[in-house]
Design brief:
The protein is an alpha/beta fold. The chain has six helices and five strands. The mean pLDDT is 97. The structure holds D-ribose (RB5). D-ribose (RB5) binds next to helix 3. D-ribose binds next to helix 3.
Length: 149
């Protein structure tokens, strides 16, 4: 599976951990930054992952900041991005089965590495259910047309 990963400084250590875990599984991960501990602004990295995933429909995204909130908001500004802020395996599963989320957001100051890794593993494995959820996801897509991106 192809991934695009991004974080700010607060999410850097957890992102590195999760990128390594994905690569160990054989996945192809493009890390769009940040790459060091210097303080940076999360919108740049969230939006970049959003753009990359929107342009590569079979790919998934991983974004990490302190809470996961800011970087998920940034990713969701991009048309075609469906970024879900998840906190555990259950929310990761729902994000895939019901929302067809294509980007997972995690908060490095909110959950530990073990819970984050389990959530990412679930997000990677679980498929979208379709059915009644497809109609709702289509409605989300229709909202993209009102964006300026
Ligand atoms: C950075 O201090 C912090 O604000 C950021 O990582 C994130 O939590 C924002 O939503």
């Amino acid at each position: 599976m192809k991934w695009y990963a991004g974080s700010d400084h607060a999410g850097l250590a957890l992102k590195r951990h999760l990128v390594a875990a994905l690569r160990e599984l054989g996945d192809d991960v493009v890390d769009v930054g940040t790459t060091d501990e210097a303080s940076v602004d999360y919108p740049e990295y969230g939006a970049e992952v959003g753009r990359r995933v929107a342009a590569d429909p079979n790919a998934r995204g991983l974004v990490v900041c302190g809470t996961g909130i800011g970087i998920s908001i940034a990713a969701n500004k991009v048309a075609g991005a469906r970024c879900a802020l998840v906190h555990d395996s259950f929310t990761a599963e729902m994000a895939r089965t019901h929302n067809d989320a294509n980007i997972i957001a995690l908060g490095a100051r909110v959950i530990g590495a073990g819970v984050a890794e389990a959530a990412l593993s679930t997000f990677r494995r679980v498929a979208f259910e379709g059915g009644r959820h497809q109609r709702r996801v289509d409605q989300l897509g229709a909202l993209d047309t009102s964006k300026g991106s």
